[in-house]
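Ticket #351: bound-state structure for zinc ion.
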Amino acid sequence: MRAVVYQGPGDIRLEDVPEPVLVDAEDAIVKVTVASICGSDTHIVHGLLPKMEPGRIIGHEFAGVVSEVGSAVTKFKPGDRVVGAAAVWCGRCKACQRRMFSACERGATFGHGPLLGDLAGSQADYVRVPFADNVLQAVTAPDDQVIFAGDILPTGYSAVAGLVPGSRGVKAGDIVVVFGLGPVGLCSVASAKLFNPAKVIAVGNRAERLALAQRLGADVVIDAAATEDIRKALKAATDGWGADYIVEAVGKEESLENAIRAAAPGAVVSVVGAFQNPIKINAPRMQMRNVTVTMGMGDLGRMKELVDAIESGKLAVTPVVTHRMSFDDVIRAYEIFDKRLEGAIKILLTM
Ligand SMILES: [Zn+2]
Ligand SMILES: [Zn+2]
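RESOLUTION: The complex was predicted; output attached.
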């Protein structure tokens, strides 16, 4: 079968490799029909993921058709169409019982090498899926509508639904601000609308992404690159009160500072931007205004509610797809995605 294989920093190749086989009773083998490229894939290609080794298949965003199931898989049979989560979880350990699936003691992320469980990636014709009953979700809508339900959408959605189990999410009537209009931030904009907010304000710095945010439901967009004082602009857009709920999807100290500054008394700042290093945080402001900052990984256990929302027509993030390419052109697709050529946001690879 074909697979995208990491060879070392800056070097990936489309290679012919052996097909995966069932290993555990809870495994399924999925024939991938559509895959997509994520920012964390390019992070790996640049050699920035510790412990990554040559010869590993990368990729973690996929949809496809079940081709084989182990004896303990109860929800799926060959021929079922599915979307897969980016990572796997056992469903039984202490972390899983607390709905902290991202911290599962037997967890692993597809295509992230030995650091994250050494599970072969899904940019391949076939992928082995451990704990298939948890990790796969049955779908009826077309691949390009459901593929994001396993990674960027659960992250963007969890950011507005509440990142910590039991925590406050966006409430009806809230003024919501989303900082950062990458794929995750755009998914937060679309997801926020499900909670009937008073207003969604999107802050980004690329014209095509601001336009897309509007298409996905943003009521106000602020071009950070063309705005001298973002805090002032946000104050004006929130009637001087501030925002009730803020999503930080950039992962930079300056952006988190702006988010905390934009927070109304009692507001929540929900951080899904990926921080690489420790940062300073505005503790006095948080304390004086009872601002809660929550951070974390998206809840992959929300795939069913997300697929339901997509299939009932309430949620649509397919507009983030800017390119559709053949899997045979995957190396070129990586270049387009990585360098953001041709306004690339998300690239779908058809197998
Ligand atoms: Zn991803
Ligand atoms: Zn677990």
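RESOLUTION NOTES: The mean pLDDT is 96.
TICKET STATUS: resolved
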